[in-house]
Amino acid sequence: MQDLLYFCQQLINGLTIGSTYALIAIGYTMVYGIIGMINFAHGEIYMIGAYTALIAITGLATLGIAWVPLVLLIALICAVIVSSSTGWAVERVAYRPVRGRHRLIPLISAIGMSIFLQNYVHLAQGSRNIGFPALIEGGFRFGGEDSFQMSVSWIQITIFVTTFVCMTALSLFISRSRIGRACRAVSQDLGMANLLGIDTNRIISATFVIGAALAAVAGLLLGMYYGSVDPLFGFIAGLKAFTAAVLGGIGSIPGAMLGGLILGIAEAMTSGYLSGEYKDVISFSLLILILLFKPTGLLGKPEVEKI
Amino acid sequence: MLLLEDVHTHYGKIEALHGVSLEVKQGEIVSLIGANGAGKTTLLMTVCGNPQATSGRVLLEGRDITRLPTADIMRSGISIVPEGRRVFSGLTVEENLFMGGFFNSRTDNQKGIEHVYELFPRLKEREHQRAGTMSGGEQQMLAIGRALMSRPRMMILDEPSLGLAPLVIKQIFEIIGQLREEGITVFLVEQNANQALQLADRGYVLETGRIRLHDTGSNLLANPDVQAAYLGG
């Protein structure tokens, strides 16, 4: 019984962290699906989302607004707006002017963008980590008094529910809406979509904006979960989310979701049964194994074309 | 309808079209024939603005479209069935058609789709199937259907018979003939010169980026040079 509770605890921790990886991973996978390139500034967009949420929360506290749902909603909206604008700007500044050039050029300009954003936040907010208020506290405990107690906190539940809602909304948007259909068409054949009169630049911008908005949601959630932010906040999370996207099959949205969850669970199990220090070793080993034996990722499909 | 005046097009530093002039009049079917590498596809893509002409003018219904971006040109009453069909293989047949009518209202699209299914009953059967899983002929029908969705006044077809069985080719050419009856002007590029010229009111012969011959379809069919070079006779 106790073993089972311990296992469930690791599973819940894994699902919590994994679902946020998935939220960030979608940004990588959508951009890759459309322009075939990795947005290396995506981790910074997520970090900016977390900072914006923190600034909004602090601001609201000074104004004396303390009703938690309202504070969260406003913080979320602010984070989404600022991150989306940043995502849009990254595409305009670092990708669009060099599109169609050698693949290394946008890669370098995106890394430059990432360094710029990181240092901008360093200057504007200082390089020390700042405490993130725990707006959602408490939770449930299961298990006997003198044995292992499994705990599920409200913040974990919030993360899980929010992620689930975002994923469902995104899936519906991509599969049903007119713009979602255009996103899929552009990712399959950008030139052809252009020949149907579709302004492919706007669709590309839309994918950067959607990915950035989801990263902002993750920024707010993880800021509250970890309890602090710093300008390097986006680096490791971005790397993990990128791993998740590749694991699931880069370019595939369900793949990013699955990859995020698997990665999160693998890390939590490693922390729970081996040692927390090994969790990065395990996640990147997992990536290497997948790339060795199934290079397209779990749900990625090799390109099949009928001639 | 469509007028090209002394159009030059470059790929990088290489000039692919050396001053092409041609005209497609309202309601006509005009065929452009030529060997591989003559610049046929380049010519069509220049009309679509990708790549743009480096000099000369392209006029669509009297409007200069030479410098317009591709997306704007393709929203001006012209549509294309490109070389190799290029259906969106991961999208269903219905979704592909919706992409063709991206700028239409919902009711126009509903009407458009019904019309396409009347022309190609086979597509109706495959409505919810992914386009990539269909045969080449079915994909070609879908590409034509998709091009019809925007209710174009002019349609460009690039090698619609390529890689298809003779029976399917016959069907595709019948449909092209039908387009004219619907009032759509057709500009057809083909290697299958015999069928393309039989169907066409007029034809142009393109050789290494220059128009070599221009005549009615039947005169070109009877022309000994054309027979020797393109009709295997």
From TrEMBL, chain A:
One Pfam family from the record: BPD_transp_2
Bilayer-crossing regions: 20-38, 45-65, 71-90, 102-121, 154-174, 203-226
Protein name: Branched-chain amino acid ABC transporter permease
Keyword Transmembrane carried by entry: yes
Lineage of source species: Bacteria, Pseudomonadati, Pseudomonadota, Gammaproteobacteria, Pseudomonadales
Predominant location category: membrane
Signal peptide residue numbers: none
Localization: Cell inner membrane
Family: Belongs to the binding-protein-dependent transport system permease family. LivHM subfamily.
Membrane topology annotation: Multi-pass membrane protein
InterPro entries: ABC_transp_permease (IPR001851), BCAA_transport_permease (IPR052157)
Keyword entries, A-Z: Amino-acid transport, Cell inner membrane, Cell membrane, Membrane, Transmembrane, Transmembrane helix, Transport
UniProtKB/TrEMBL annotation, chain B:
Family statement drawn from the similarity comment of this UniProt entry: Belongs to the ABC transporter superfamily.
Family annotation (Pfam families): ABC_tran
Gene name in the database record: braG
GO molecular function, one term: ATP binding
Protein's name in the database: High-affinity branched-chain amino acid transport ATP-binding protein
All residue ranges annotated as the ABC transporter domain in the record: 2-233
PANTHER family referenced in this protein's UniProt entry, alphabetically: HIGH-AFFINITY BRANCHED-CHAIN AMINO ACID TRANSPORT ATP-BINDING PROTEIN LIVF
CDD domains associated with the record: ABC_TM1139_LivF_branched (cd03224)
Superkingdom assignment: Bacteria
Cytoplasm recorded as keyword: no
Entries under Gene3D superfamilies matching the protein: P-loop containing nucleotide triphosphate hydrolases
Record keywords: Amino-acid transport, ATP-binding, Nucleotide-binding, Transport
